[in-house]
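Dear colleague,

Following up on yesterday's call, I've attached the two folding results inline so they're easy to grep. Please treat them as preliminary; we haven't cross-checked anything against experimental data yet. The first protein's sequence and structure tokens come first.
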Amino acid sequence: MTKKRVAILISGRGSNMAALINAAASPDFPAEIVGVISNRPDAKGLAIAAAKGVSTSVIPSKGISREDHDAALDKALAGMKAEIVCLAGYLRLLTSGFVTKWSGRMINIHPALLPLFKGLDTHEQALKAGMRIHGCTVHFVTPEMDDGPIIAQAAVPVLASDDAEMLGARVLAAEHHIYPLGLALVAEGKARMEGGRTVFAEFSEETGAGRLVSAPAPRPKTPDIESLARFTP
């Protein structure tokens, strides 16, 4: 199997980055992580990636124009021979020119069920709206923020006792499950962006069709309260 070369962009702790690196360590995963780039030199994820044997670099965004930063970023990705770019908590808006160049080859994880709750503070937004279901979305990146075609989603229940931190922790666990799945679909060519939509290749249920939109984990043989509440408030 020829694995797709993947670069990950981070700005902080890199927990989703770590989930992708761990998934890619499996021999049958269709992608390899060839580098991690941060726009912040103090990003904690850099040390985590280095400890896992992944090459890291910093392209500072402070004190530089967006265009010059993205040009340097594109040059670094070319040096890695990256084929897919994964944003994993990359806290910087990319220029439309850069996004267009990587159209269909750049994906992101967002902590909400898009198109609901774009931008920041998604868990607070969900609680304020009285949602009983919340979750996360893997999507292709387009010039408009949090607006690209959806690749995969995971749903979690919103419990009556939740605050934003508690709900965020539950969503983060789902992110770690769904992001490797989304990357695998793109790397294998089972999901591609076409005409502003996500197009899925034909494949049988046995090969994973039922996992395109999933809960954060398969239902356990012995249901617990949370699994029963997953789709029932």
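Below is the second protein, in the same order (sequence, then structure):
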Amino acid sequence: MPIYAYKCESCGHSMDALQKLSDAPLTVCPACGKHALSKQVTAAGFQLKGSGWYATDFKGAGTSATAATAAKPDAAPKTEVAATPCGASCACH
């Protein structure tokens, strides 16, 4: 359930209320009793932590950690054939 911030237009009393999305907005101020309570615009207060879908799928430069390691070529040593006078047309190459 989200927490909504309210402020009374009459007395200036501020408060937070834990409400369901389907609940009607509060209108009566608990401090002065007038119908001057209005909902305030606030920033969302959540963080994405851990190793869930955000960290593996969207966090970073567009590739996940497993996709980045899978895209790397094998680190097997490459051997080069020395130039021989046969011209590489024999079975030794």
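For the second protein, one point worth flagging: The two ends are 72 Å apart (CA to CA).

Best wishes,
A.L.
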